[in-house]
Amino acid sequence: MKATLRTVAEAAGVSIATVDRVLNRREGVRPLTIEKVEAAIRDLGYAPSSLVARVQTAPSRFIFVLPRGHNPFFAALERAIGQLAEQLPFKNSSFDIRHVDVFDGEAIAAALKDIRQSDCDGVAVAALDHPSVREAINTLKAGGIAVVTLVSDVPSSRRDRFIGIDNTAAGRTAGSLLGRFLPHRTGKVAMLAGSLALRDHAERRFGFEQVITQDFPGVEIIALREARDDPNTVHGMIEEILKEHPDLAGIYNVGAGNAGVISTLEASGRARDIVFVAHELTDESRSALIRGTMDAVIHQDPGHEIRSAARILQSLTSDWTIVDDQERIRIDIFLRDNLL
Fold first, then answer.
1. Which of these, 300, 299, 301, 276, lies nearest to 289 by C-alpha position?
2. CA dihedral 129, 204, 189, 294 (to 10 degrees)
3. Of 260, 266, 299, 3, which is closest to residue 151 (Cα–Cα)?
4. Looking at residue 39, what is its pLDDT?
5. CA nearest 257: which of 234, 277, 287, 237?
6. Staple partner for 203: which of 1, 119, 168, 340, CB 3.0–4.6 Å?
7. How far is CA 219 from the centre of its chain?
8. Confidence tier at 187 by pLDDT (50, 70, 90)
9. For position 78, what pLDDT does the model report?
10. How high is the mean pLDDT of the chain?
11. Whole-angstrom distance, CA of residue 63 vs CA of residue 83
């Protein structure tokens, strides 16, 4: 049976008008609905003339440059990249992964230089805001390669687009949550970051400090440590902070390495005494929320980010319209009471 607009609509559980809006890349359709319609199109093999250019694209190769290591959030990004072929109707596109030390600007620049010399149409890079990285991105662009930054931005570069949350707003959200959770909205708070050379970590710190200063004058930020997102380093730093400040009331972890905070707080017997707010809903942070060791997690959907990066790179190399509302990455807040 030949697939029609109606059978696509029925398979996706939407109206024919909604399918038409998705086919023609019009605004006003939720990302989840778009994914359902595109899945129905792919499963039914429906390809009208308006969609042929999307389904039967020329061969394209895209590369994701991600941090080396065991960061659970970036592991989730990698899993999402592996699912792109099943989730998006870009049958002739390939998506590869390169790993690099995200805290080493020269290493990232070298990886981007290697990509420039390969057969590649577009790059998504989780990047350090570093002069060498900026120059490498600009060189890729000069060579006709589409570039988007992922999770952490390099706004002074010629990159085409940033894929990620508003990190200043995420930091403000963390500040508001932690400040409100503190008894009497007073006390000492420690901050951890992977590296303030990462734009997302620097912006989160700025937003957090902005809210604490403006709205919680009784809260004192007593430490800011950089731990390169390593759980063992984080563990040692939190032990040291607890010794120096036995009256510590709160912790905000700007980056990763939450396992180090969790293990230290639980070993110290103060897991329920110290308010702990951090980022990214992973297996370890989910369990810590349920146990009460963590109080709130600020999250960004890794699957949405990867699908958005792939769609945007494909659009940039195919002159398709980018639907901004579909590609906006939103901030989610998880407490133990609203875990999915």
1. 276
2. -110
3. 299
4. 87
5. 234
6. 168
7. 29
8. very high
9. 97
10. 91
11. 14
